Amino acid sequence: MQSADHQLRISLNRILSGLILGFCLLSSSLADSPAPTAAPSAAVPSNDYPTQARVEYVFGCMHKYGGENYDHLYGCVCAIDKIAEKIPYANFVATSTLAVMIKTPGERGGAFRDAAGGREAIKAFDSFIAETEATCGLKKKKPAAN
Predict the structure, then answer these.
(1) Phi and psi torsions of 114, nearest 5°
(2) Backbone angles phi, psi at 87, to 5 degrees
(3) C-alpha 66, offset from chain centre
(4) Is 133 helix (H, G, I), strand (E, B) or coil?
(5) Contacts of 93 (CB under 8 A, 6+ apart)
(6) Helices (H), strands (E): how many in the chain?
(7) Is 106 left (phi over 0), alpha (psi -120 to 50) or beta?
(8) % of the chain surpassing 90 pLDDT
(9) Which of 15, 41, 101, 110 is the most interior residue, by most CB within 10 Å?
(10) Please, which residues have CB within 8 angstroms of residue 120's CB and are 6 or more apart in sequence?
(11) What is the mean pLDDT of residues 22-26?
């Protein structure tokens, strides 16, 4: 009989394989995507993101840029709309999950940190998100001078 630790490793490897596949699909779709046009791409449904996911992104985005106010609200709503035009929701979830899991300390996070192509895909995803947020007028909060 297999130990619980062995079964956990098998489960993590399956999850990791799925995340890496989603990651590779995202990276190739970002690299192959044409310049943005006025109409959303027919390949990516523009409304396949659940409302809760959009709201969670907006809250996290507003927190990232300095708090809840209308300037951040509009910029973050703009960003999630542009993200939804380019990336299918399943790929967004897979990549976001990998971006969080790669930072998990210890042995459990090692499977994600050591994944082939994982770090490059995270960099491409983070770069895409940063560019999208910047095009929507979002700027990092400057640290307070002492």
Answers:
(1) -90, 0
(2) -125, 125
(3) 20
(4) helix
(5) 22, 53
(6) 6, 0
(7) left
(8) 37
(9) 101
(10) 27
(11) 51
d(CA 133, CA 116): 28
Predicted local confidence at residue 44, as pLDDT: 53
pLDDT tens per residue, range 79-132: 999 999 999 999 999 889 888 888 888 888 888 877 778 888 888 999 999 999
Amino acid identity of residue 21, one-letter, is: L
**Block residue for tokens 């959303």:** 40
Which tokens sit at 145?
A: 């001078």
CA 106 – CA 41 distance, rounded (Å)? 40
Please report where in the chains the tokens 């399956």 appear, as a residue: 14
Which string of DSSP letters, residue by residue, matches 3-59?
-HHHHHHHHHHHHHHHHHHHHHHHHHHHHHPPPP-SSPPTTS-TT-S-HHHHHHHHH
